[in-house]
Amino acid sequence: MSVRSAARLSVSAEAEISRPGRPLADLAARRRRDARRRQVTVLGLRLLVAVVVLGGWELGARVGVIDKFFWSQPADIVAKLWAWITQGTDLGPLWDQVLTTMEETVGGFFVGAILGVVFGVVLGRNRLLADVLGPYIKGANAIPRVVVGALFAISLGLDIRSKIATAGVLVFFVVFFNAFQGVREVDRNLIANARILGADNRRLTTEIIIPSALSWIVASLHTSFGLALVGAVVGELFGATAGVGELIYAAKNNFDAAGVFAGMALLAAMALVAEALITALENRLIKWRPPVATETRI
Amino acid sequence: MAPAIELRGVTKRFLTPSGAVFTALRDLDMTIQPGEFCAVVGPTGCGKSTTLGLISGLEPASEGEVEVFGQPVNGIADGIGYVFQADALFPWKTVLENVAAGPRYRGTSHRDARDKAREWIARVGLAGFEDRYPYQLSGGMRKRVALAQSLINGPRILLMDEPFSALDVQTRALMENELLGLWSASSASVVFVTHDLEEAISLSDRVFVITAGPGTVKSNYKVDLPRPRNVAEIRFNPRFVEIYEEIWKDLKDEVLVSYERQKRGAA
């Protein structure tokens, strides 16, 4: 920029500040006000969507457009949840069921994620191993993996282990492919730089490859927690004595649509809480990344 | 005394992804004395960066000999610093951790490495920025960190691959002066690759002109300008203009050859 244009720019900036009736402080306050107003609008609209959907459902069920027997109605579902909370479920206290499913999910999530990262990094670093095992892993990935739940129910029994295994398998592949890709995409320049600075192979893996792959890995954790929940619930459907999936299964057997929906609501709540926890973890692990400039997160 | 760097009859071939052989360097000879500041200029794609890769030991030569302080290069040699063209700072490390990386990889204790890093950060004018991450710094600041990261290891040879090409003109002149200051306080030999002849002359003792690819040394010129220099002012020195004209005559032909080839390649 030339000196003259810089001078011109600063003159026009001063003009902006000193223009009567529109001081800079006013502008900032207006921006804040606009932002707040927009937030209120978004919240209001969100609420409106919920009211329209749930209200329409309730109304439809009451006037008979929607068959209550098959589709239940929000009031019944809330009543069911309340009954579960206050009087417990047929399987015991509700808290126990939620805790059981949570244990299975978290257990499967950790087993799958750790194995996925280890295998992903090892295969990503070792080309021969990757070439040899690649087709098998791709093949295994192509199988609809929830069916292994049946296998685990036979081999590991009806307790928590079979559910952890099912959830773990679902999580493993997602994390594995992301870790593998993350390792492969490490910037060549960074590796060259680290080697020049004196890093040996071990340092290269722990200080360059893994941190670099971490943003891929953490991104996969969002999807994979959902999958862990799917694995745990499917495992319960194949046979269990407790858990939210078992609650849903029992409700289905009693033609209790409200019970099925109540179970679904519980699962959704669990998934949302976990999602928030993973986002917090992500922000901690990857604090070196420039903040993303978006407000809407889905 | 052995020269700091000696390349004799060096050829470097690469295999392109399609399987064809691509010759980047052909029969290249280059000798650089200890403490000498050398610039390497040439048209784009003439193998300037490849030369640095060979000296550093990141890439082996296909033919010929590469020696550093009389020792044949075989893998990454000790005492080499390398400042890359692209950003090569570790984005997940803070400025302090980035600068401390070299000593830590070489076995210095955590605390000593940090103390030394603080010293170097101050020396490149970034005191107070130790806890920032690279994304929070400007391009010029990142280059300062990269310099500190390399120099903290006390390299006897500093390789620089168009390190300032991404900076704006003012920042660039500042960084060039700072580099000269840091270099004169050390005894390192510098190989500075650039496509900018002005930058090459104002910084160096010797300028190598590389031919259009496959690259080989076309000529080398001694730059007998007085030191210490101020890069912003040295270009007004009449001797600077003379040297510039002399080298440019050589370089121009190569640039034209390279340009013609690119045009034909694109057509």
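qc> The interface with chain A takes residues 56, 58, 76, 80-82, 84, 86-94, 101-102, 105-106, 133-135, 149-150, 153 of chain B (CB under 8 Å).
qc> done
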